[in-house]
Specification:
The protein is built from 2 helices and no strands. It is mainly α. Helix 1 runs antiparallel to helix 2. 8% of the residues are buried.
Amino acid sequence: MAHMVHNERVKLAAGWLQTAAGAALAIGVLTPLAAWFYSAAPPVHPGTLFAGMLIWFIASIILHCLAQWLLGVLRDDQH
């Protein structure tokens, strides 16, 4: 029974990390891209925009990979 509680906690944490990864992608990459595309923001040097988007994209990938890794510590029913 203890492994079931452990597994639920792991899945909850992995879900939270995955949600954070999606938020990082949406806020750090898609929002600036849309603002640039629709000219809804003050002009920014393209290199600065790209660098910021790249940092957020990498952060999103790292959070996603952490969530995947965390799911690897799930226990099976035999333990």
